[in-house]
């Protein structure tokens, strides 16, 4: 499996990343894609994202390895941005390439569900009046990861 | 000695992102023991570790850990809120 994991401030190009996977010489029949954006809740101006360098990359690598084994992926790209991102900006990209659509789509859901509960990122909401608030974790995210019926990367 | 890292609102409230913590001479403390030691410093530490109680997560050597996990010399211990990426 071709794996590419990046944590970066810069944005990403969906076209370029898809071309990279499709042109990798694998027997790729489909690519599942998830792109997370900064949602403009309640007058939000921007999100500030921070992470735990080192642990973040290793947790994402474990999630991707699990997805690769479970769904028979040929390639997987995860790009997660950090820093201050305005409303509408892309935050995260997950691309999963497989021979068939079922595996590609399921793996994409698996990776983003586990990333949300197991990768050490934190979001702060910044408002136009200068107020800032750290985002609380949501139980619905735990439930989404739990539906995959696996112990997750922490128990790997 | 142990390196302790703080993230997100814990770092904001404590006014630092990392510090060195001297372990007791005898025995192997758990993460909970170290939290108790930090709380006893008072001030912002007392507030953060008392209030945060159930909402604080930790990692030892960049692996998620429970409060019962042992902490040994030269370990890297991190305290942070539940993660909110993606």
From TrEMBL, chain A:
Keywords: Molybdenum cofactor biosynthesis. It holds the Pfam family MoaE. GO terms for biological process: Mo-molybdopterin cofactor biosynthetic process. InterPro entries: MoaE_sf, Mopterin_biosynth_MoaE. Signal peptide: none annotated. This is Molybdopterin synthase catalytic subunit. It comes from the Bacteria. Converts molybdopterin precursor Z into molybdopterin. This requires the incorporation of two sulfur atoms into precursor Z to generate a dithiolene group. The sulfur is provided by MoaD. One of its GO terms (molecular function) is molybdopterin synthase activity. It comes from Gluconacetobacter liquefaciens (Acetobacter liquefaciens).
UniProtKB/TrEMBL annotation, chain B:
One of its GO terms (molecular function) is nucleotide binding. The keyword Isomerase does not apply. InterPro entries: Beta-grasp_dom_sf (IPR012675), MOCS2A (IPR044672), Mopterin_synth/thiamin_S_b (IPR016155), ThiS/MoaD-like (IPR003749). The keyword NADP does not apply. Pfam families: ThiS (PF02597). Keywords: Nucleotide-binding. SUPFAM superfamilies: MoaD/ThiS. GO terms for biological process: Mo-molybdopterin cofactor biosynthetic process. It comes from the Bacteria. GO terms for cellular component: molybdopterin adenylyltransferase complex. NCBIfam families: moaD (TIGR01682). PANTHER family: MOLYBDOPTERIN SYNTHASE SULFUR CARRIER SUBUNIT (PTHR33359:SF1). Belongs to the MoaD family. This is Molybdopterin synthase sulfur carrier subunit. It comes from Gluconacetobacter liquefaciens.
């Amino acid at each position: 499996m071709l794996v590419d994991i990046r944590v970066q401030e810069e944005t990403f190009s969906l076209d370029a990343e898809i071309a990279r996977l499709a042109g990798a010489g694998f027997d790729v029949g489909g690519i599942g894609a998830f792109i997370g954006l900064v949602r403009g809740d309640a007058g939000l101006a921007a999100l500030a994202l921070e992470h735990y360098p080192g642990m973040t990359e290793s947790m994402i690598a474990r999630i991707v390895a699990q997805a690769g084994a479970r769904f028979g992926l040929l390639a997987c790209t995860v790009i997660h941005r950090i820093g201050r991102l305005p409303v509408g900006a892309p935050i995260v990209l997950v691309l999963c390439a497989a021979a068939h659509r079922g595996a590609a789509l399921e793996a994409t859901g698996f990776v983003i569900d586990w990333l949300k509960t197991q990768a050490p990122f934190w979001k702060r909401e910044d408002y136009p009046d200068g107020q800032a608030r750290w985002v609380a974790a949501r139980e619905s995210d735990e439930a989404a990861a739990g539906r995959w019926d696996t112990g997750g990367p922490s128990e790997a | 000695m142990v390196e302790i890292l703080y993230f997100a609102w814990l770092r904001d409230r404590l006014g630092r992102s990392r510090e060195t913590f001297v372990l007791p001479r005898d025995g192997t403390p758990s993460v909970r023991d170290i939290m108790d030691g930090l709380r006893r410093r008072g001030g912002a530490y007392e507030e953060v570790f008392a209030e945060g109680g159930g909402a604080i997560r930790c990692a030892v050597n960049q692996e998620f850990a429970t409060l019962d996990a042992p902490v040994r010399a030269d370990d890297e211990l991190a305290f942070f809120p539940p993660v909110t990426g993606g």
